Task: structure prediction
Amino acid sequence: MSDTILVLNAGSSSIKFQLFGLEPSGRLARQLKGQVEGVGGQNPRLVVADASDRPVFQEACPPARTADLEAAQELLGSWLVGHLGAVPVAVGHRVVHGGPDFAMPMLVDDALIERLAKFAPLAPLHQPNNLAPIRSIRARRPDLPQVACFDTAFHRGHPEIADRFAIPDSLHQEGVRRYGFHGLSYEYVASRLPEMAPAMAAGRVVALHLGSGCSACALVDGRSVDSTMGFTALDGLPMGTRPGQLDPGVVLYLMQKGQDADAIQHLLYHDCGLKGLSGISNDVRELLTSGQPGAGLALDYFAYRTGQAIAALGASMGGIDGIVFTAGIGENSAPMREKIATRCAWLGLVLDPERNATHGPRITGPASRIPAFVIPTDEEQMIARHTLATLQATKGQPG
Ligand code: ADP
Result:
């Protein structure tokens, strides 16, 4: 059996995993993907599919064995070892926050875990969850190499001006600054672009990661130079349940009305965005078919703000040579891509309706002044590549 790399992405109530086989050619081939869902709830399940998304395993889990992420991680680990008869050569983790310094993935040791734990207040809903399986694997298998891959790292080459807030320097030094997120997604997109559109890849590109979380990234020659996401994953574009850019005076107003930090945090992460604006749903599919006025307003707002962000990132780069759509909405929703493109008509962007309806990859034709593409993202593939490269750099070739 070939060596494998396990990729883990731990959220608040699920652990998603993918297993990649290391082929003799050096290629990483996805073998399995799945998740333990409903962690901490009454109906937890382990669901596993093969590389073609065919279900290979589904089972209800005893709630006592998935009471928290650590327990769920242990259950998943036992299942993998039982089914594969082998442990992976390394585990790669998605870690949302790498702070101001980490511009590349890091091999995990105790000191790194402590450093990353200090960023928890900057990503309260993600960082503790991301670190839980790292800690539990390290406690059980300290010899198993683990690599932390950060959503912020790809943005660390930004010019200083892009990452500053107009606040006193002492706060900046304390870490109150723009970090940018969805970096693993943008790095994957940037790695695919040269083979799909070489001229555009070498130029100025706005990449749009439009999923549950949404952001836009300015790429020059494949490197991130600016992003709409800031200090936390709340800033920038409107999202499923987060508002995106918001006057900080709104937060002051809520505080003065007596709401505490937990209540405001809940509002900003769970009740705003498409869900708050429509009063119906955070899911674009539901809003597109709803017919209620709130749904139309939410979708129009989403396209309006995304159009504004594209223009702003164009200003950061001094022009735009192409646009890329990715993630759940960006990859699957032809009507939303059309709505956003309409907001960019001033740029000379004109989608080809047939190419857009079939999701590209190229969704513009000769009528468009700049090209636009749909590139399905693959953050787990990116994490697997980083994990392998980090392992090779620190230990020589595995296997
Ligand atoms: P995440 O990985 O952050 O959970 P995804 O990138 O999978 O998010 O995006 C999830 C979102 O994508 C859903 O909330 C839904 O609004 C949207 N989405 C998925 N498929 C479609 C589709 N066919 N049409 C419109 N929106 C879609």
Summary: The pocket of adenosine-5'-diphosphate is lined by residues 211-213, 240, 282-285, 327-329, 332-333 (CB under 6 Å). The first helix runs from residue 69 to 84.
